[in-house]
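To close the section, here is one more complete example, presented without commentary so you can practise reading it yourself. The ligand is alpha-D-glucopyranose.
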Amino acid sequence: MDGLGLRNVSSHCSISDMDDYDLSRLLDKPKLNIERQRSFDERSLSELSIGLSRGGLDNFESSYSPGGRSGLDTPASSARNSFEPHPMVAEAWEALRRSLVYFRRQPVGTIAAYDHASEEVLNYDQVFVRDFVPSALAFLMNGEPEIVKNFLLKTLQLQGWEKRIDRFKLGEGAMPASFKVLHDPTRKTDTIVADFGESAIGRVAPVDSGFWWIILLRAYTKSTGDLSLAETSECQKGMRLILALCLSEGFDTFPTLLCADGCSMIDRRMGIYGYPIEIQALFFMALRCALAMLKHDAEGKEFVERIVKRLHALSYHMRSYFWLDFQQLNDIYRYKTEEYSHTAVNKFNVIPDSIPDWVFEFMPTRGGYFIGNVSPARMDFRWFALGNCVAILSSLATPEQSMAIMDLIESRWEELVGEMPLKIAYPAIESHDWRIVTGCDPKNTRWSYHNGGSWPVLLWLLTAACIKTGRPQIARRAIELAESRLLKDSWPEYYDGKLGRYIGKQARKHQTWSIAGYLVAKMMLEDPSHLGMISLEEDKQMKPVIRRSSSWTC
Ligand code: GLC
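Output:
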């Protein structure tokens, strides 16, 4: 361990690293193009779906980096990113290590916030599944996979618990939102309590936890090359149980997943009920990750088939109906209503008058994004950062859509990034709408917390999306903003205000995922080959959707 808290990892570069990152091809290209042409992630979905059963690593992932770092220094990256650690990096590592939570002397996670000054601890002294993801990625990138493995196994055990809210039993596959380790110093025993939504404010089950768990299992496998964990019958069963929850048939007419408000990072009423983009993007990504890891045995095979079908339907639905750009907006603006039958253009009977004024101003001529929600007569036009970044990383967004999302971030920088990356949602809901939508939530007043607050943790997702789309300069700009404040302000959970200039009204300090998110962003920018553990390449078999405007008028 050196002074930075970084473990010294070898600059080992295996043959398999090269598959992922074709150096010779890159070097032929003019330098300017290099950034756009890079592809750091993996093979197509159809190739991945061959799965583990047919022969391990070769089929699963073409690249892994023993020790967590590929050590591949392309001239392009070393010239631009000569890595002189920012003084904040060492501080961040120290803070991240302070947040470690141990169970029987083994590290199993990181505490949500280490804020002694805060009068109310609430549940910030727990290990949250979603909050642990950036911590896990930081440890994987630093060549410390053990804690990630411990976490995956511990949460898998918790999944096996019987979960009840009052007299109602939750689905078997549900993963906890968070857990807490209780140390008994006299008896010298450790016990765990977990929260599956039965203690959470609002009593909502975290739909995102299971998806993050699958995504993390793949990141671990990809980063370590250790297939044995994902191959265990326990992990295979854990995945199947999660999938059984979201692939079951019911009354749904859409391939998207119907959710209650508060079921994800935005874990209280914010009008995201229905088909929130955050969950749909994570759902898509988890399905693709599971497809790569599920064995094609008697039990796994059926799931593989269901996943393949769902992915096709889901990508079609999302790319057609959630996508909004200037052209789409203009089409919706001119929609006819009350259409019946298969020939309907306005399938969900969206009334053009329900389009909010702000979106006409906000929409640039070049650029686009996946809107927040689509259901009968309701389009939530708000921008949500997490869903859009995950859409890029999972290749739910086509390459053109991914570029358009980055174009939008660039041209609406002040609105979406301002002085602190990154707004969780845009715009904020105010006055009457705020009353109706949030139920008068004083924590979610305009431009605060989930209602248009700025969350430093999102920096890692933005950075990953920037690298994937070949636009690291955007990430660099955002990281610079974070570096000007985060440490000085003691790593707040979120910032308030239209520009994100003020430390959030009720924000915790020393929030672990703000710390880990910064580290992950820095490490990815320094060694972009890390991106592979959290990114999936486009599946060439999933045909891009023909634009609604052209297909529907013919
Ligand atoms: C808040 C956030 C949630 C996070 C938790 C722990 O409840 O809304 O997303 O997981 O704090 O940090």
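Once you have examined the tokens, check your reading against these statements. Residues 112, 128, 130-131, 265, 267 surround alpha-D-glucopyranose (CB under 6 Å). The chain is about 45% helix and 10% strand.
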